[in-house]
Amino acid sequence: MLRTFALAHRLPTTSASITTTTSWKTPIPTLSFLTTSLLPTPSTHHQQQHRNYACQINHPTKIGQLRAKLRTFGQGHIELDISHSPGLALLTLTNPDKHNALTGKMMAELADCVDLLETVTDPKRREKEVREMEEDVRELLKDSGLVLKKGGVAVQKLDLDALKDGLVGVIVTGSQHKSYCAGLDLSAAKTTLLTPQAGSEMSALMVSTLTRFMRLPLISIAAIEKAAIGGGAEMTTFCDHRCITDQAKIQFVQTQMGVVTGWGGASRLLNLVSRSQALRLLGSAEPIRGGEEALKLGFAQAVSPVGKAVEGASEYMQQYVWEKAPAAGQDDDVGARRCVEAVRAMKRIVSFGLDYERIERVSELEKDLFKGLWGGPDNLARVETASAPKKKK
């Protein structure tokens, strides 16, 4: 049975072998616009706070060049089932052979997925004909490996009619009941991404993508089955809620790898737990083990049985879908749905209420510090050790 944390009061907001011969030797244009103001040179501290931070970038501007570059690295893919259940989509990180670690290809597809969700939840979409919407989506996914599903079955194109009942939430999980996400694919890092420039640009794309996801008018929940390590731990923080099993382990191992959080996880964690707890989790790499500890910290809002994280997350999200849910065995049209636009509007209000300026400034600091450490001697040595074949006992 799903266990929830009644006192939760903070509504916050990989690793397959590389087969491509492409490398970072071809220089990517420096993304100077990440830190350059769009306004005249500021003369006051207040004006300096209006820098164009990485997480304020919207697609498909200059960062699209970086997305295209990353798309060539690694295997795995992102799946999006837009009709997982009434009102809910399911986003799956799929790289099971490597515990669902992220590759460059998957990072690009995750950004593609946010593009799609932004398009279908655009408040102005009612003014568009379905045909025009279909063209928009087709253009967005033209070069993407994003796998679309409808009710668990792969489809070639997005059925906009499937959205007629209104999407209000997204469940994010890892594939095949394995790890939620094991962070960055170390084999990809060793061969293509382990330089300060590549690390900085990877960081810029991920911070941008995850912040855009947080700002969607959709309520989100991470369904955490087993381990979420390093960047995977950061990937648990961009959702509004977390449903976790008793066997799950959340661990920010960045200091053990000689780096800091590079995907904005530290700034988001500060909105989920206390400052002292965030410092402990980030600085000492002490893991959160199991659901009860996660509930006590305020990190998670629900606990589900092992193997049932997605089901538990779906059960938790029903409060946003139904005013009166249909009984077991009844058709969905027997129940009474909540007003979709009202739920989305509430998410916009809560999202707007976050101190995004602080989050963005901390994320920018994370990116700068990450660049200074990523690909350095200590980091390289630790990556080599971590990726070495394990000796059999």
UniProtKB/TrEMBL annotation:
Keyword Lipid biosynthesis: no
Top-level division of the source organism's lineage: Eukaryota
GO molecular function: lyase activity
Lyase among keywords: yes
Keywords: Lyase
GO annotation (BP), single: fatty acid beta-oxidation
An annotated GO cellular component: cytosol
Protein known as: Enoyl CoA hydratase domain-containing protein 1
Species per Swiss-Prot/TrEMBL record: Linnemannia schmuckeri
Organism classification: Eukaryota, Fungi, Fungi incertae sedis, Mucoromycota, Mortierellomycotina
Gene name tied to this protein: ECHDC1
